[in-house]
Amino acid sequence: MNLFQIKENNATPISPSDIEKSERSIEELIERNPNIILGDKLLIIGRQVKTDSGKILDLLAVDKEGRLVVIELKKGYAPREIVAQILDYSSWLRSLPERRIEDIARNYFQKKNTKNISLSDEFMKFYNIEACPEIGKEVVNILFAKEFSEEVINPAKYLYEFDLSIYCIRFDTFKSKQCEYIITDNIVGDFDEYYSEASEARSDKYDNRNIVKQLVSYLQENYSHACSELRFEKLFDFKLYQSRDGEWTCAYIDWAYDDGAKFCIEVGTQSSTEEELRLYSCFQSRNVSEVLNKKVHSEESIKLFSEFEDDSENNKPSFGKYQKVDSVDFESLKKFADQEVATLLKVIETL
């Protein structure tokens, strides 16, 4: 790969940079200039992210469609195992609930002293849009290295042909008297297809997400004080959650019980099939707690749960209430939430 400077019809070669860049310096370069990767804006939400298996992911970003972008960097040759490595990261991310992704972003934003530590707020500001899409429903894998062997290119191409979002980008650096240059070459994957795959259409599940986002703000404004007045430690304010398949979308809030077990209430929507849509509310413990389970099943609490289904098992209490509807708008969801939150807070007062 050669680079020339053209001036007055004369081509002057730019010498390859003889400065050996560390992976850390390349990582910092991409972190500050992620447009090098896609040629477009890219919101970085994590650096040196530790997976549940203890492995370290170089850079994590979110594109303007809400897709997670995993970036694995190598300063020299990309080893054969890099394909398996990035797929391991990708499968881990696909298994994470959106709230875990929000935690990764929050930690990164705090380290960077970003004004907005909420992923959705930072996303809307960064991409200058009014609504945040579902984050992490898809994962894009990008390998960025100075050289790729056929042992990496061939399996990457095979996976790409079977619709896995994997891209290999080769780079090189050059140096003139005035400055340094970086040149990139996309050798696996087509970024024109990458952008054409993005759909502007918004599904009913996405619309439900926006309605529930309004509900989060409403509940926070009207019930935050009551939630803080309970004898249990409130772990955070109302938050938005949506499952990866879009089936469950809710506003939720957590407390810590006397034995340290975390419990929550949720109010939201469930799209179990294309034909069926339900409003739902629930109380559940996130941990096994024999004490909490016994207290929730007391006569006083059970009376309040008279319209709820008891899905508790193995000392992990869970109660849910479901109401089938034809469609959802903010006013109907707000009316349902007012009734349900009042009931669930009464339950918590009995614990």
Write a short abstract of this structure.
This protein is 36% helix and 31% strand. The chain is built from eleven helices and 15 strands. The longest helix is centred in the middle third of the chain and has 26 residues, at 204-229.
- Percent of residues in beta strands: 25-35%
Q: Please mark out the parts with pLDDT under 50 across 5 or more consecutive residues, or reply none.
A: none
DSSP strand count: 15
Order of helices and strands: EEHHEEEHHHEHEEHHEEEEEHHEEH
Rg from Cα: 25 Å
**SS element count, helices:** 11
Distance between the termini: 70 Å
Mean pLDDT: 84
Largest sheet: 8 strands, mixed
What structural category do the secondary elements indicate? alpha+beta
| DSSP helix fraction | 25-40%
Shape: elongated
Question: How would you describe this protein?
Answer:
It is a single chain. The protein is α+β, with helices and mostly antiparallel strands and 351 residues long. The protein is 36% helix and 31% strand. The protein is built from eleven helices and 15 strands. The protein has helices spanning 23-32, 35-38, 82-95, 98-111, 119-127, 150-161, 191-196, 204-229, 290-296, 299-304, 330-349, and strands at residues 3-7, 10-16, 43-50, 56-62, 68-78, 139-148, 166-175, 180-188, 233-234, 239-242, 248-256, 262-270, 277-285, 309-310, 318-325. Strands 1, 2, 3, 4, 5, 6, 7 and 8 form an eight-stranded mixed sheet that branches. A hairpin with a 5-residue loop joins strand 11 and strand 12 (262-270). Helix 8 (204-229) runs parallel beside helix 11. The longest helix has 26 residues, at 204-229.
